[in-house]
Amino acid sequence: MSDEHDPDDVAETACRFTDTELAIYLFLLQGPASLPDCCAATGLEEGEVTRVLESLSQSKLVQPLPIQPPRWRAVAPNLAFLNFLSKLRAEYAKLSRQTTSLNNVLNELQSVMRSDVLGCHSAVGVEKLADEAETRTKLIELLLTAQHSVRAMHPTVAWGDVLDMDFSVDRALYDRGLDIRSIYPHTTRRQREGLNYFRRLRELGCQFRTTVSVPGRVILIDDRIAVLLLRSRHDGGVVAREPNIVGFFEQLFEDTWDRALPVSEYDYDKDVRRELELLVLIELSSGRSDEAIARRLDISTRTLRRYITGLYERFGVETRFQLGVAAARAGILPGAPDLE
């Protein structure tokens, strides 16, 4: 894995304060204060202090008091940490259900593809595609029939000529007035190719978001066709027209889209880093090696170890075993996983 995916300036952990947030939070720890009090103590404009107070409130670090004139108070650090753990626990449960559901479907389809049941024939509503070349040709053919929308989930961004071809297809679809929405993993924000592709998509007017993990590539054409590209290039793909299968992937896309984060800046923000740290924690609990986890997350092992260091700091531990115990006690992970 290239260190192009690992710029040195993205080493912050998920909930680290900005200087302004820290100044206001420390001031409020001394006692409740009004907006003018915070402005006077920090020398900041009212609009900036208001924005910071809203951000801290969303992070459950400060609370507005139900009095007039309005005043704010800081949440004690230990309670704030418990609030953070509660949010992580909920995010873990959602991510686990989503990933398990999609993986089960992809595994079932892949098993069918490899069995002798289909052979060279197709089941009702399901068309087998033998290899990558046939799948790409069929996909372009089907995209030309799109009438109103194309929705796609991509576990990675392509490279070189394939990326240019993908952009040409997106441009042709957009020029026809189709609604185009795409979901990519958060790690795409750190890849040079991914960042450039995002900029080109934005110039077209396409919509795209990122989420912690995209287990497989799925393209939905209108509300009638789902094209699944299986994990190995040699496995080809599947075209599904059966309404129940298409409906499942439509719901999966919309649920993932609602939870995914818009790319307003071509960098990691706090929410992106927090979600990635959570995903790292889940992967560590599986017992996989650092190299295997880095491959699954499409990051370098050095970047992975930065996330692990950030988790050590957050939980106040020094080893992976202690991290597993701390996460289990906090209710984020079931049991006490062996992370050594």
From TrEMBL:
All residue ranges annotated as the HTH luxR-type domain in the record: 266-331
Any Pfam family the entry gives: GerE
Any one Gene Ontology BP term: regulation of DNA-templated transcription
Domain of life the protein comes from: Bacteria
GO molecular-function term, one example from the UniProt record: DNA binding
Transmembrane segments: none
Keywords recorded for this protein, A-Z: DNA-binding
Gene3D superfamilies, A to Z: Endonuclease Chain A, Winged helix-like DNA-binding domain superfamily/Winged helix DNA-binding domain
InterPro entries per the UniProt record, alphabetical: Sig_transdc_resp-reg_C-effctor, TrmB-like, Tscrpt_reg_LuxR_C, WH-like_DNA-bd_sf
Record keyword Ligase present: no
Keyword field contains Plastid: no
Database matches in PANTHER family: HTH-TYPE TRANSCRIPTIONAL REGULATOR TRMBL2
Protein name: Response regulator containing a CheY-like receiver domain and an HTH DNA-binding domain
Source species of the chain: Saccharomonospora glauca K62
